[in-house]
Each structure stands twice: as C-alpha cells, then as structure tokens.
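Figure 3 (text version): structure tokens given as input.
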C-alpha cells in the first residue's frame, strides 16, 4: 500500500525525477509508492523546478496547463486542470525540428500559446490577459520521466512530473488584437505528412483558452505568484493527445496562423 509522504521525501523524489534527464532511465510511478495530495504533489513539482533551475541552470520561462477538458479530468478523477513549469530549453520558437530519439515517450497536443507583453497582476482575469498577451499557434509535446506512462499514470504522478512537460513549439507570429469571442471561435486542423489527422475547437479548452490562463493566474495567486513579461503559457490542447511519431506536423489555427514541427 502507498504510504503518506514525509517532508524529507519531497526533495528526494524531485531528485529522482531530475536524474532522468541525465540517465535517460525512466522511473516507476510515484503513486505506486506514496499517496500524495495534490498540494503535496505540487510541492514535489516546485522542488523539481527549483532543482532544475538551480543545479541544471535552466531558467523558468512560463507554464503549461493540462487537463483542460471534462473528459481528461474524468480520466484521472480530477475536478480542475493541472499545471507545470516551462524552462528555456522547453520552448522552441518558429517552425522546429526535433529528434524523436532525444525524447522518452512523447505525445503531441495542438495548443494556443500566450506570450506575455507585460506583467500580469496577481489573479489576472480574462480581459487583462488578452490585453497583455500575444496569442500564437503552438504544438506541445508532453513527455514523462515515467516508463510506459500514458494513460496509466495517476494525477499525483502528472503533477509531480512537472505536468509531464516535454517541449513546446510556438509560432514566431501571433496576434494581440483578438476579442474573447473571437478566440472562442478558433478552429484547429492538424496535419501529419500532408494528411488531416484531427480537428478541434477552442471551446474544448475550458470553454475558452483565455479562461484556462485565468484559471492558472488564480492558482498561482494562492501562492502569491503572478505571471511575468516574456513568459509563455501553453493553454491546453484542442485534441486528445496522440503519440508523436516521425514526419511533418502542421497545426493550423485559422485566423491565428499555423506552426510546423518536423520530427526525425
């Protein structure tokens, strides 16, 4: 039976997760050893992020938001989304090439990326978020430090593992003139090697991706934190995640533009 986590274990668990970046050896689910609350899991995530920033020297550059649809929340028995931290080596700007062998077990999720033109106030709401953001076409590549992870992990595993953050590709073009209603109407078409593999709508992301970012600002406000100028926020997928394979992907968000990912 999983045991309740002790205070000392949070740094140790964070160290285990961080070590995977160097060893390339995935670890077993934390949920098979410990029973953590969501708050305890976020404490592990923060210890991991602090260690990656301090020991590995990777600067924090934003956040990603997961489980932004009722279907994905139901899959893990959650009642709200979850978030992770993006680092300088997470984010790739413009059409991008990635090596499949450089990742563990990656997925692909088309998402709108919010890049902040100004600091947001603590707990910023939708209108402020839109006013201070450039919205760009994006592709998130979730990846995990756990073996054979999707969809077998528990909510606490996802949170501890930094929201299963892998890579985020964000278009070098974007828009800062869309209304809340216009964002809600955005349609996504995903192509793989020239063939359509899925379509999705902004309403899949908490009704509106701007609302997803507002959820994040409220969660961070509980910790007296806010989002800063230059940060990127990956706001939630328009589609159910698909396994990432080799080939050329294009995510077309209509009036928001498109972005391409080549996987070799």
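Below: residues designed for each position.
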């Amino acid at each position: 039976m999983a045991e309740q986590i002790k205070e000392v274990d949070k740094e140790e668990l964070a160290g285990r997760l961080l070590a995977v970046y160097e060893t390339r050896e995935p670890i077993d689910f934390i949920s098979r050893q410990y029973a953590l609350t969501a708050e305890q899991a976020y404490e592990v995530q923060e210890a991991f992020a602090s260690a990656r920033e301090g020991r590995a020297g990777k600067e924090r550059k934003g956040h990603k938001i997961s489980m932004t649809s009722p279907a994905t929340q139901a899959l893990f028995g959650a009642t709200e989304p979850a978030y992770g931290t993006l680092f300088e080596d997470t984010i790739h700007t413009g059409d991008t090439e990635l090596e499949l062998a450089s990742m563990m077990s990656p997925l692909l999720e088309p998402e709108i990326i919010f890049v902040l033109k100004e600091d947001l106030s603590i707990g910023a709401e939708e209108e402020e978020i839109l006013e201070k953001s450039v919205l760009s076409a994006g592709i998130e590549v979730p990846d995990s430090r756990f073996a054979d992870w999707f969809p077998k992990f528990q909510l606490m595993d996802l949170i501890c593992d930094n929201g299963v953050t892998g890579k985020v590709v964000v278009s070098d073009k974007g828009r800062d003139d869309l209304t809340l209603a216009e964002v809600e109407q955005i349609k996504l078409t995903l192509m793989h090697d020239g063939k359509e593999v899925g379509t999705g709508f902004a309403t899949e992301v908490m009704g509106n991706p701007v609302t997803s970012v507002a959820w994040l600002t409220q969660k961070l406000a509980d910790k007296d934190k806010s989002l800063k100028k230059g940060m990127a926020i990956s706001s939630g997928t328009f589609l159910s995640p698909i396994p990432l394979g080799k080939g050329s992907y294009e995510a077309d968000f209509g009036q928001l533009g498109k972005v391409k990912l080549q996987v070799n």
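The first helix runs from residue 9 to 23.
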